[in-house]
Model the fold of this input.
Amino acid sequence: MNETDDRHARLQAAAHPRRATANDTEKLARLFAAAFMTDPVMDWVARRGPKRAIGLERFFYWLMSVRAIPFGEVWMSDDGGAAAAWLPPDVPATAGGFWDQMRLMPMFLRLCGLPRMLRGQAMGDAMEKHHPHERHYYLAFVAVAPRLQGLGLGSAIMDATIAHVDAEGLPAYLENSNPKNAKLYERCGFVRRQNIAPKQAPPLIAMWRDARNRIGSS
Done:
C-alpha cells in the first residue's frame, strides 16, 4: 500500500469508528498516553522523567476501564489510530466522593509524582467547579497517534462522533488543553467560554457547542 492509499484507509477508519469494548482498554491507554505525552496541561500536571509514560498509561487505563468505556461512548478507528472518549449525559464527569478519591490516590501519585500532586488537585478542582450543569455530552479526550497526526484523522473522528450527539439534539462541552486544537474544535461548532486553569498553569479553555436539531442543521 502506497502512502496515499494508506492515508485514505486511515481516514476511512477514523470516519467510521466503532464503539470501544473492554478488550480495547490497553490499546486505548497506550494511544491516549502517547498523544498526551507533551500536551501543555498534562505536561504541567504529570511527573517528569522516565516514569511519566507509565503514569500516563495507568491513568488512561483507569479512565477507559472505569470512567469511559462502560458508558458506551468511547469511539475508535478500527486500526487504533484515533479515538474519542465521550461521556453521555447524566454520567458524572469526575469520580465520586471522598473515599472514591482516596482509593484513586496511588494512581494519581504515579501520574503526578509527589511534587506535583497539588497541581493535579488544583486542575481537577478547577475542571469540576466550571463543569456545566445543563445536560450535555462531554468530550473528555480525543487522540490521534503521534505518527499519524496531521493527516486529518482528528477531524474525521470528531465529525463522526459528534453526529451521535446531534442525533439526540443535545449540546456538547470540552476543555481544550492544547492551543493547536482550537481550530479543530471551532470548526466542529465549539465556542470558547473562558480559561478555567488555576493560576500559573497553562490555559485550559472551556468550550461549548449548542445543541443542533436531530436532522443536523446548523
Notes: The first strand starts at residue 18 and ends at 19. The mean pLDDT is 92. The first helix runs from residue 3 to 15.
